[in-house]
Each structure stands twice: as structure tokens, then as C-alpha cells.
Amino acid sequence: MNVERRQARREMKVPIAVSARHAHLSVATLKKLFGADHQLHVRTWLSQTGQFAAEETVSLVGPHGRLDHVRLMGPPRAQDQVELSRSDEIALGIDAPLRLSGDLARTPGLRVEGPAGSVTLEGGVITALRHIHAGPEDAQRLGLRHGETVGVRIDSAGRDLTFNDVVVRVAPGFHLELHLDTDEANAAGVAHGGVGEILPAAG
Amino acid sequence: MNVERRQARREMKVPIAVSARHAHLSVATLKKLFGADHQLHVRTWLSQTGQFAAEETVSLVGPHGRLDHVRLMGPPRAQDQVELSRSDEIALGIDAPLRLSGDLARTPGLRVEGPAGSVTLEGGVITALRHIHAGPEDAQRLGLRHGETVGVRIDSAGRDLTFNDVVVRVAPGFHLELHLDTDEANAAGVAHGGVGEILPAAG
Q: Are residue B75 and residue B88 in the same domain, yes or no?
């Protein structure tokens, strides 16, 4: 293909971030799990501004099983939110809906165990809808509109696929990134740090 | 769309079978796990002729974890073969290659535990390449050739995608079916009994 076309293609690349199971918890819940004066410790800063993976982990307990060493994210949020893959949910015996972060009405709960206590959440468990984060400048450059859905093509060794239903989220401070859960990354044969190609909206 | 075109589309549908982690074991391995005179008991007949899911399950043990209640398939095979999803492999701490069934050279092993003993397999663990089984008549009707790769589009509630790199396997006795592992089915939002649409070869 000619140089101009190759250039245009290169500009539609999106870096891939793979989210393993994790939880964002409230200050009140963290107190019950880790003790009254506990503060989360930063393990690694995430690419999205101000967010971090914490040193702290918890155990998640459902009707059919448990998952240990589940990473907490910080800083604390107003609402408890647990993000699982469908594989995780099958292991726990939980059926959580596909949702964007923060959309927690009518979601199931589960038990969370920490070193200083345990909490039974009444809700907050979701399977994350795959989505692209983009700052306003990247969104303009790529022709992406907040709230639309696009396709993303993944080339890998033996598991090429095209994800549709990828929701675009545009906000100041967002870093350009496709967020997949582990089921999705595994099905596509890609890992954190891989690259996808954004396709025009499916119309 | 007109009736003829709708008819053509309907004919490209393929039923979906989802394979959870499972093992095909040899008679020698089964003896060590279940005792000398043990025979596998049929739990459910699979759609592929003569194959069945057995009543019997085993535990799989890797460097990082274990998976219990892993279903055995029958009848016994000449070679031990364990089919895992990448999510399973991460839980166990094993990195198995993408392979078609039976292609077991240079594959990792793991420990298998049964009620009467345990066995350390030297190899045989694979991640199954997604594939379509078709009998000769279905293959002819759908224009599928043994060994080619095709795409399959999945429509679901919020996780539409198109799998590429789907390998076509044609043999007498094969029942038309797309075989996905649990990561792939979860990423597409489909379950056993769902339906995909075969796309022309990607060229």
C-alpha cells in the first residue's frame, strides 16, 4: 500500500491494556478489611491519571468457589466495584452483567475477605464492557466520539479476531488504550502491551 | 434482503459447542488414576460420533495452582491430551501452545490426580485451536475445504465479534459444529448451543 495509506493505518493503532480481576473499594469497606487506619500502598501507577494498583489484595468468595490474591485498585471510590471475567464468575458461581465502570444498579454482590475482617457486598460485581479510553486530542485525531461503539481488529499468532461492541470513552486525562478483560485477551491471543487497529463504526 | 439471499445466509449458520477444560487419557494412565479394572462411565454422548463425556473427573496440578473436577472424555485414546483455556493455564502456571487435537509434539505436561493414584504427564497439554467440524456433505453445501481457515461472526448482547483463524476439519462422521474454548465463548458472550455465521475465507 502507498505511504499515505500506511500512515493513516498507523494512526488507527490503539495500545492494549489487559485487566485481570480487581476491585475498587470504598474507604468504609477498606476499614473493615484492613483496619481503621489502613491506607492503600501504591504498587504501580496505571496509565490512567491518578489510578494505581495497590500492594493490597483480598479474597473473593462466591457460592461455588473462591479467588485469592485479587488486586485492589486505588484511590478508594465512593462505591465498591468488583470487575471479573466470565471465567472468574463461573469459578465463583456468580452471574454479573456486562457494564461500564460505575454503572452498578442491580448487580450481584459477594463476600470479600481481608486480613482484618470480611465484608459481604450487596452489589457492585460487574463484567466490564470492553472499551477504549481516549483523551480529547486522541479522540479528535482518530475521529472517535464519546459513547459510540467501534470495532478493533487484533492480529496475533493463530487467534486473529475483530472485537465489535467496543465502547468509546472520551474524557480529559484519559490515555489512549483499549481495555480488555483476560477472557477477551486470551481469545485474541494478545497480552498487555499489544496493539489493536480501530475500525470505522459498524453503522 | 430478498428471500434467496436470506436463504443463503441461513445456510451459513454453524451451531456452537463450548469446550470447558477436559482430558482424553490413555488406558495406561487411566489404570494408574482409577485402578486396574476401571472402565469410564458414559455421562453424556457428544455430538461427534462415539465420543462421550465421562462421569469421571480428575484434578490437574501445575506449578501455581490446581483445578479440581476436570472432566474426562472417552473412549480412551492412544495419547494423553489435556485441553485447557489460557485462563486455566494462568491459574495453573502452565504455558501450552495453540494446537489442533492430536498435535502434541513439544507440549508441556502436568500432574493428574485421580482417586487411586496420580500421574505426571511428560506432555500433552494444549490450548485448542478454534475449529469447525464438518461432515463431507455439510462441507460441500457450505463450500468449506479441509484445512482452510475461515471467519465466524457471533452476534450476542454486547459482545459481538468475528473470530478469524478458525480451522476447518472435514471428516466422515463429523457433525457440523464450531468448537470454542471457554475464554473464546466468554469473550463473544455466547454459550453452548449458540449460533455463529461462517464468513468467506479471509484470503
A: yes
